[in-house]
Design a protein that fits this description.
Elements: H1 5-36, H2 41-44, H3 49-62, E1 68-72, E2 78-84, E3 90-96, H4 99-117
Antiparallel strand pairs: 1-2, 2-3
Length: 118
């Protein structure tokens, strides 16, 4: 398979353009999900670092059908869920986290462990 330098360069440029389009689509989906959750993107992600991280995770998710992860936001009330369906398409959602219910259980189990150590 002999490809000219020009053909290889075109193939790389095409892949890079595809990555850029995908990143833009994921970041737009992320901003739409934030707005749907009544969160302001300027407050949640003022520097755009979270949006880039979500796009990177979505890129990983796209290669692994069944991928499902939730990234917690600094506020602790919401998280960003990145998952991939059977078709490999990554989806981004903002979900509410219910930390109030799980915290007492964790504290109680830690206290019990401390008591049993004595």
């Amino acid at each position: 398979m002999n490809q000219s330098i020009w053909e290889r360069r075109q193939a790389v440029a095409s892949r890079l353009e595809g990555h850029v389009r995908t990143e833009r689509a994921v970041r737009d989906e992320f901003e739409t999900a934030l707005a749907a959750a009544s969160l302001d993107a300027r407050d949640v992600d003022p520097d755009g670092h979270l949006g880039r991280a979500v796009a990177a995770v979505a890129h990983l998710a796209a290669g692994a059908p069944g991928f499902d992860v939730v990234l917690g936001l600094a506020s602790g009330d919401h998280g960003v869920r990145v998952q991939a369906g059977a078709d490999g398409r990554a989806q981004v959602q903002v979900v509410e986290l219910s930390t109030q219910e799980s915290a007492p259980v964790a504290v109680a189990s830690e206290l019990a462990a401390l008591l049993w150590q004595r």
